[in-house]
Design brief:
Distance between the termini of chain A: 84 Å
Shape of chain A: rod-shaped
Number of helices of chain B: 21
CATH superfamily of the largest domain in chain A: Bira Bifunctional Protein, Domain 2
Strand content of chain A: 15-25%
Order of helices and strands of chain A: HHHHHEEHEHEEHEEEHEHHH
Helix content of chain A: 40-55%
Number of strands of chain B: 39
Helix content of chain B: 25-40%
Oligomer: heterodimer
Number of domains of chain B: 6
Number of helices of chain A: 12
CATH superfamily of the largest domain in chain B: Phenylalanyl-trna Synthetase, Chain B, domain 3
CATH topology of the largest domain in chain B: Phenylalanyl-tRNA Synthetase, Chain B, domain 3
Distance between the termini of chain B: 92 Å
CATH class of the largest domain in chain B: Alpha Beta
Radius of gyration of chain A: 42 Å
Shape of chain B: elongated
Strand order of the largest sheet of chain A: 1-4-5-9-8-7-6
């Protein structure tokens, strides 16, 4: 008996060692340990063994089974490892094949610039508001200290709908509308479309976007205007950005200024973008004119404030180095896909 | 405004800043300089020479060989082809190694043209004699220059060989171009800018001394003036000059005019132009002998009158235009242009100088109606200081005497109907400091005022404003004067203190941002189209003649028909942009736009129109009608809209394919529309591929969105049961109707519904179709039992059979 088991064991181990794959191993497992396997047959033959010998024979059978099972596990593991290695090798891809695009759409560069600008001002406590694009003459001009007869009211610049209604030429009317209905403190930015009677060319468009800003509170100073816009410039164009304020004139602010920023392309050394000056004109600003405050129902003795207006397209063109404004309104996907 | 730097310097003695420093400081004190150009740019080693000897060239007929004295011991030999060269001439010589600005034709290469000694047809030549064109100018600047050939200094120029020729020509100067803001009328003059320069550099301002002029006679004996419309003419002054002698104006005057871009003509014209530049006051001259009744009357024209201006053009007048008349007739359009009937000719003996002040707005509007904008009207329309009118006419008469071009009659006829008051502004240094955020002493502030002719009255604690500074109205204006001369750059940099405010986007903006994100996720890129378009768009979109969408806000003065109406629907721009892409062979273009349409409440417009922000998205290429639905529904889900929209083809949209269009409703409210563009509409826009567009009206959508209060609904813990249902129905029955039944009848137990097969063909019979759905049922709180499922299924079957829909056997 013992011999027979030893033979089974030897033969099984030999066959397992030689097995090529998991199918072959499984076959061997069935041949020895399966219901009709050789070892199972031996166990079935226990009836013929003398009762006193049974424990011993049982032990031999068990040892044999364990040995075969151990070997089985070993070769199975090896076979699995080998199969995995084969599979992985077979599955090698050419990683230089083209990417599979998700085909997402792209935002308009004006929107990218606007979101950036809004992020900066919202972070500084400003609320983003809007006003009508078709606007009363009163809000677009008179309430902004641009009385009848002012050259800015001339028809060559303004699109008229009637003698009382115009397409707004600036986002500044939103200042007045906000002051009329809000008690200070006021901190707003108002982006939106504006219209001027300019023919379309590389630097002009009859329909474009501005962003207006307004702060009204007690004790607001020109120094606050400088500080606020300098911070905006650093956040928008980089921490190294320097600003320069030049006196200017706008009917609705006094004192008024234009703000230049150090050229963000050359850092101020002078290049084509800044026309060699090292500075780029970015926005107009000033202290809200006391007349404008009064007309909007705010007492200039109690409150003061500042306002600024930014040409969004100007920022977009500069930031992304786009050399022709017409590209912004053609909506060619080859252009849009770059943003 | 362009002006010679030398001219400015002559009124600011001691001003020695170089060009760049002047540019920088003037800009920072508020006189913006656009740019500057040196007149001697690219001109090097150029001297005065005299042609001592001139001989023919041995090898060329058209060349001559000159010996030119340039101040050295030996003359230089220079070969020239100039046809006008002659012995004894005083000329401009460019020496070896020098440079000129241009070639004979006036072409100006960047960096100039270097001149070197060489040989011309075998004869050595040590330099070049040159023309004004080669210096970068033309006959407009130097009327005495020959049309073709080298420049020859006129007799009596007082120049000698070896002198700096550029200095002799007045080219050692820089022309500054100023951008004067509309409030600073006084700075449209050399004196105004010089005053600012003096204040900026803290130097004395020394305007020209104007001596008393005139003989023993009185102008009032020659001429009378009556102003009938004083509202349009606050002041009219006139002086008389007799025994007029024409001639060229002196070199210094020509140089200054030239630098301002004005061509010298003759002494009298030049004086008028000179004073206009210097004082900013336009003047006009009439021939005294042509003035009927020796009388000037200033009054409005009559409607429909015609008048011939001195350029020979007939002009149509109206009763809003102010005219200068004599005793019988009109002789000039006030402030714009004189008449042909009184213009100065070479035969003039005696003339009247007019220096007046007219209403700026009236001049501007008149000039515009006439289509005649002149240098004079350009100045008047800014609203001049009447005080300046007399100062300017006196200056002009002083120049007439100085230049010896006539005998000035004593006295002036001065009709001054409205003298401006000198304004007084309270001076509160504390307020100015608190407004600017500065800490300046009273003395420092007061120190800025005298150079600007602002007088401080300590007793009244007020500043008296000169009449030429009408822009200074209140304390904020004084604060600006302080800020300008203290320096904007020196004002501290602080941030507003005070109560904090919460920065935020409006809810509406957040929904719009979300819409943009979803569109981009779905492959659409953002477009921006103009708000105005052509009314032709309506025909292209096949809108019927009575469509309310043809009621648009119309621009009275559009840039052209193409930009004449405010859009009432966003399709025109979208289809135009898609067509642009198609024309450029861009494949699979997908665009969206978030912008307003403008719907008038009534026409003509008396109140503002309804501006509605709409999301429009469209594409051609891959995809179909259902791609639009997917993008819309994606947006709804992201915006917290839990229900499903309904689609119905009502055939309401003429610009869409009649069988492929729908109105989109949500909880019964119309939110927009979508469809495949009608082939004829597509063709009208130049689109050849099938094109799909959807429009969602954001004001309608907004109330259904829910960005802030979305709640977690838990994850199902009990098993689901799925059932497949195949149904047979009429081909025309929309599956939406089936879905409606399935949803209603299965109620809360329905988890999802999926259409997985639509079949038409022999097996279901003519005019029929089979539609198959997979239903997934699940309860939140328990495992479904068989009776739940049978219950739902029988309700569904009931519902279906009511509509004549049967289960497929």
């Amino acid at each position: 008996m013992q011999e027979k088991l030893a033979k089974i064991r030897e033969e099984a181990l030999a066959r397992l060692n030689a097995a090529a794959n998991s199918d072959a191993i499984n076959e061997i497992r069935l041949a020895y340990l399966g219901k009709k396997g050789q070892l199972t047959e031996v166990l079935k033959g226990m009836r013929d063994v003398a009762p006193e010998d049974r424990p011993k024979v049982g032990e031999w059978v068990n040892d044999t089974r364990k040995a075969i099972e151990a070997k089985l596990e070993e070769v199975q593991k090896k076979a699995a490892e080998k199969a995995l290695a084969l599979r992985l090798e077979a599955e090698t891809i050419d990683v230089t094949m083209p990417a599979k695009s998700a085909a997402m759409g792209h935002p308009h560069p004006n929107t990218l610039a606007l979101k950036e600008l809004e992020r900066v001002f919202v972070g500084m406590g400003y609320e983003v508001v809007e006003g009508p694009e078709v606007e009363y003459d009163y809000y677009n001009f008179e309430a902004l200290n641009i009385p009848d007869g002012h050259p800015a009211k001339d028809e060559q610049d303004t699109f008229y709908i009637s003698d009382k209604i115009v397409l707004r030429t600036q986002t500044s009317p939103v200042q007045v509308r906000t002051m009329e209905k809000t008690k200070p403190p006021i901190r707003i930015v108002a982006p939106g479309r504006v219209f001027r009677s300019d023919d379309v060319d590389a630097t002009h468009s009859p329909c474009f976007n501005q962003v207006e800003g307004l702060v009204i509170d007690r004790h607001i100073t020109f120094a606050d205007l400088k500080g606020t816009l300098a911070q905006f410039a650093r956040e928008m164009f980089g921490p190294e950005t320097k600003v320069k304020f030049r006196p200017h004139h706008f009917p609705f602010t006094e004192p008024s200024a234009e703000m230049d920023v150090s050229c963000f392309k050359c850092g101020g050394k002078g290049c084509r973008m800044c026309k060699g000056s090292g500075w780029i004109e970015i926005l107009g600003c000033g202290m809200v004119h006391p007349k404008v405050l009064r007309m909007s129902g705010i007492d200039p003795e109690e409150y003061s404030g500042f306002a600024f207006g930014i040409g969004l397209e100007r920022i977009t063109l500069l930031k992304y180095e786009i050399d022709d404004m017409r590209l912004l309104y053609e909506n060619d996907t080859r252009f849009l896909n770059q943003f | 405004m362009n002006t010679s730097y030398n001219w400015i310097k002559s009124y600011v003695p001691g001003l020695s800043a170089d060009d760049q420093e002047y540019f920088d400081k003037m800009t920072l004190s508020g006189t913006k300089v656009e740019g500057f150009a040196r007149l001697d740019k690219n001109l090097e080693k150029i001297v005065v020479g005299r042609i001592e000897k001139l001989e023919p060239h041995p090898n060329a007929d058209k060349l001559v060989v000159c010996q030119v004295n340039v101040g050295g011991e030996e003359p230089l030999q220079i070969v020239t082809g100039a046809p006008n060269a002659a012995q004894g001439q005083t000329v401009i010589v460019v020496l070896d190694g020098g440079k000129v600005a241009g070639d004979h034709d006036g072409h100006l290469p960047e960096g100039g043209v270097p001149i070197k000694a060489g040989a011309l047809r075998g004869v050595p030549s040590a330099g070049m004699m040159c023309s004004v064109e080669e210096l970068g100018f033309d006959q407009n600047f130097f009327p005495e220059a020959p049309e073709y050939g080298i420049y020859v200094f006129p007799e009596g120029s007082g120049v000698k060989p070896g002198d700096d020729a550029l200095a002799a020509l007045g080219l050692r100067d820089t022309v500054f171009e100023y951008e004067i803001t509309s409030n600073r009328v006084d700075c449209y003059s050399v004196l105004g800018i010089a005053r600012e320069a003096a204040a900026t550099f803290r130097l004395p301002f020394v305007p020209p001394a104007v001596p008393a002029t005139g003989n023993g006679e009185q102008a009032s004996d020659y001429i009378s003036v009556e102003v009938k419309d004083p509202d349009l003419c606050p002041r009219y002054t006139a002086r008389v000059v007799k025994n007029i002698k024409f001639g060229p104006s002196p070199k210094w005057m020509q140089e200054r005019l030239r630098a301002s871009g004005i061509r010298p003509i003759n002494n009298l014209v030049d004086i008028t132009n000179y004073v206009m530049e210097e004082y900013g006051q336009p003047m006009h001259a009439f021939d005294y002998d042509l003035i009927a009744g020796h009388k000037i009357v200033v009054k409005r024209a009559e409607n429909g009158e015609k008048f011939v201006t001195l350029d020979g053009q007939e002009r149509q007048l109206d009763d809003r235009m102010l005219m200068i008349c004599d005793g019988e007739k009109e002789i000039g359009i006030a402030g714009i242009m004189g008449g042909e009937n009184s213009k100065i000719t070479e035969d003039v003996h005696t003339m009247i100088f007019e220096s007046a002040c007219f209403n700026g707005v009236n001049i501007r509007l008149s000039a515009k109606r006439l289509g005649l904008r002149t240098d004079a009207s350009g100045k008047f329309e800014k609203g001049l200081d009447p005080e300046n009118a007399l100062a300017a006419i006196d200056r002009a008469c002083a120049l007439v005497e100085e230049l010896g071009c006539g005998e000035v009659v004593g006295g002036v006829v001065d009709v001054y109907t409205k003298k401006p008051e000198r304004r007084e502004i309270p001076f509160r240094p504390d307020w100015i400091n608190s407004f600017l955020g500065t800490d300046l002493s009273e003395e420092t502030m007061l120190g800025y005022f005298p150079p600007l002719a602002l007088e401080y009255d300590p007793a009244r604690r007020a500043v008296k404003i000169p009449t030429f500074r009408q822009d200074l109205e209140g304390e904020a204006d004084l604060a600006e004067e302080v800020a300008r001369f203290y320096g904007y750059d020196k004002i501290p940099v602080t941030l507003p203190r005070g109560e904090a405010t919460a920065g935020k986007l409006s809810y509406k903006n957040r929904v719009e941002d979300l819409a943009g994100q979803v569109m981009e996720y779905c492959g659409f890129s953002q477009a921006m189209n103009f708000s105005f378009e052509s009314p032709k768009v309506w025909d292209k979109l096949r809108l019927p003649a009575d469509s309310p969408l043809r009621q648009a806000v119309t621009i009275l003065n559009p840039l052209g028909e193409d930009y004449s109406i405010m859009r009432t629907l966003p399709l025109g721009g979208m289809l135009t942009s898609l067509a642009t892409n198609a024309g450029r062979r861009n494949r699979n273009a997908r665009l969206y736009e978030l912008a307003n349409i403008y719907l008038p409440h009534a026409l003509p417009l008396t109140e503002l129109p309804d501006e509605r922000r709409q999301l429009c998205f469209g594409f051609y290429g891959e995809g179909d009608f259902f791609t639009l639905k997917a993008a819309a529904e994606e947006l709804f889900r992201k915006a917290g809209m839990k229900g499903l929209p309904e689609y119905e083809n009502t055939g309401a949209y003429p610009f869409f394919h009649p069988g492929r269009q729908a109105v989109l409703r949500y909880e019964g409210t119309e939110l927009g529309y979508l469809g495949e563009v009608h082939p004829l509409a597509a063709e009208a826009f130049g689109l050849t591929e099938r094109t799909y567009v959807a429009v969602l009206d954001l004001p309608a959508l907004l109330p259904f969105t829910n960005l802030d209060h979305q709640k977690f609904e838990g994850i199902a813990r009990f098993p689901a049961v799925s059932r497949d249902l195949a149904m047979v129905m009429d081909k025309a029955t929309p599956v939406g109707e089936v879905e409606k039944i399935l949803r209603q009848r299965s109620g809360k137990l329905l988890e999802s519904l999926e259409l997985f097969d639509v079949y038409e063909g022999a097996q279901v019979g003519e005019g029929k179709k089979s539609v198959a759905y997979k239903l997934v049922l699940r309860a939140k709180d328990r495992t479904l039992e068989e009776k739940d499922i049978t219950g739902v299924m029988s309700k569904i079957l009931n519902g279906l059979s009511q509509k004549g829909i049967e289960l497929r056997s």
